[in-house]
């Protein structure tokens, strides 16, 4: 359904350092900068981008919004979360762990990136 996700930032260099570390923890490559100054990540057929807002206004995070990243295991989810915290992100919600609900048993970890965007590492566990 989705072609890409883009988040805004007021600090391209700081956000790039954060996401380079975050995606390296799950086998991704560092982002590259396009001709408009956006940082682009390509992994597993998906695109994730960071950019200064086109309208010239300050970037802000979406209240109630979450961007979820698929993880292959609880261990990969923990490594992703630890890399994000080490690179300047902040852990949020409950600590990484198993949650059960309408989608079954999930292993989840939540972070806020340096710009305040809420991220989730999600591994769907077997039945």
User: How far is the N terminus from the C terminus?
Assistant: 25 Å
In helices, the fraction of residues equals 10-25%
Order of helices and strands: EHEEEEHEEEE
CATH superfamily: 2,3-Dihydroxybiphenyl 1,2-Dioxygenase, domain 1
Any idea what the shape is? globular
The number of helical runs is 2
SS strand fraction: 35-45%
Average pLDDT level: 92
**CATH fold title:** 2,3-Dihydroxybiphenyl 1,2-Dioxygenase, domain 1
How many domains would you count in the coordinates?
1
- State the low-pLDDT regions, or none: none
Q: What structural category arises from helix and sheet content?
A: alpha+beta
CATH class, named: Alpha Beta
Largest sheet: 5 strands, mixed
Strand element count: 9
Oligomer: single chain
**Rg result:** 14 Å
The CATH architecture can be named as: Roll
């Amino acid at each position: 359904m989705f072609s890409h996700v883009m988040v805004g930032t007021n600090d391209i260099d700081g956000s790039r350092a954060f996401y380079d570390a975050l995606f390296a923890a799950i086998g991704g490559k560092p982002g590259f900068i396009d001709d408009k100054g956006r940082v682009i990540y390509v992994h597993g057929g998906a695109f994730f981008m960071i950019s200064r807002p086109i309208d010239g206004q300050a970037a802000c995070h979406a209240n109630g919004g979450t961007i979820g990243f698929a993880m292959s295991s609880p261990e990969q989810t923990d490594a992703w979360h630890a890399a994000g915290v080490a690179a300047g992100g902040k852990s949020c919600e409950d600590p990484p762990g198993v949650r059960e609900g309408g989608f079954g048993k999930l292993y989840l970890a939540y972070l806020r990136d340096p710009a305040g965007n809420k991220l989730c590492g999600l591994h769907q566990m077997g039945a």
